[in-house]
Amino acid sequence: MAVRQKQSLVEKRETRDEGGIRLDLEHRSFYRLSLLATQINRAIANAYVKNIGRPANAWKVVTVLGGFGPMSASQIHAHTTLEMDKVTRIVDNLVEQGIATREQDKADRRRVTVALSARGKKVNAQLEEMITAMEYEFMVILNRGEREALYDFLDRLQSRADQVFGSKRRWGSFA
Known about the structure:
This protein is mainly alpha-helical. It is built from seven helices and two strands. The longest helix is centred in the N-terminal third of the chain and has 23 residues, at about 30-50. The protein starts with a helix and ends in a 10-residue tail after the last helix.
C-alpha cells in the first residue's frame, strides 16, 4: 500500500497536459517562480538589514529611485511589488534615515516627489554593486546563449502576463 501511495505521488508530480505544461504544484511555473523570487528577495533584504537597517524591503524603493530617478509614491508602487501603504511607510523611514528626500511638486501641490539624498545615492551604489555580484553568481550557471534565451523567455512571459493578468478578465471565480 505504501508503494502505491508513493507511486501515485510520483505520478502526480509528473502531471502534464497534452502540450507538456507541468500542472502539479512542485513543478508549476507560478509556484517555482514565486519561490525563486522570494529566495532572491530575502537574500537582498537580509543583506540590506545587516548593512543599512530596517525596513527590509526598503532596498526595493532605493534601487527603483536609483534606477529611475525621483518619482511619486504611486510611481514607486507601480515599479515594485510593494503595497501602497508599505511604500508610504518605507519612504517615511528612508526620509527619517536621511536616505531619501520628499518634496512637494511646485506645479501640482498635491503631488510629492521622492528622491535619493546624497547618502541614498551612496547606499544605492553599494546595493547595486552587491546585487550585480549576486546576479552574476546566480546567472553564471548558464552559458551566454542560455542567458540570452532566458532573457527572451522572460520578456515573452512578461508580455503574456500583461495580456492575461493585466486585462479586466476576472480570475476570482474558481468555477
